[in-house]
Amino acid sequence: MYGVSNQGEEFSIYILTSKKYRKTKNLQNNAQITFIIPFPHHYFRFVPSATITLNGLAEVLPINNESLVKIFEEKRILRLIVKDIDYKNDDQFVFVKIKPEPRILCYGTGINIFKLRNSHTRGGYSVNIPEARR
To answer: Which of 17, 48, 102, 118 has its CA 20 to 30 A from that of 37?
Structure first.
């Protein structure tokens, strides 16, 4: 699960995770990251999953960041995940901030699945993060 920065702010993705996980320790040694958001087709399994791929830099942040907590509390599903965390005293969880490169790679998002079935190589394209959000 991930949260997204608010409109008008620098575009970033935020992940809530444990600081004892290997991925968190790896990010502290090497901040380069690739984050893939899959959108599987549950009914049409013959069609490849649509994806959004972000490459960028990650930064591990403490859990007691109130603005990040608010991002997670704004969405119902994220609120369920974070409801039992004591943000002021917890030392197990951290936020990971992903600052993506301006170019985001997409595959199959917004493309008719029957067109993808006929030619799956046509599903790839890229978009750029608007200058105002960089």
So the answer is: 118
